């Protein structure tokens, strides 16, 4: 499955949507709205977390949801929780994603980068 991601205002922000979201029906929310893009871009992390928690209940193995929620956790200094989600992504199949700048990235590479940032933050 092909994944799409966009960069938020922070260079570290990963905002992702699933390939299924690309084929959404007209009555559904836009994919970026379902995966917290607007909230994270506006630095409304609490709203993003609420939305992503709901998406995670519906899609518990969706790397897009896990990566975005891990980003929110990391930005709100919950590094242990963020690290756990990044490890969850590593336990899933490695899928290709597209960053907001159009460049491709693999979900495992993004999770490893997130783990590295979490380890750095935890050591401070």
From TrEMBL:
InterPro entries: TPR-like_helical_dom_sf (IPR011990). Gene3D superfamilies: Tetratricopeptide repeat domain. The keyword Signal applies. Residues 1-23 form the signal peptide. It comes from the Bacteria. It comes from Sphingobium boeckii. This is Flp pilus assembly protein TadD. Keywords: Signal.
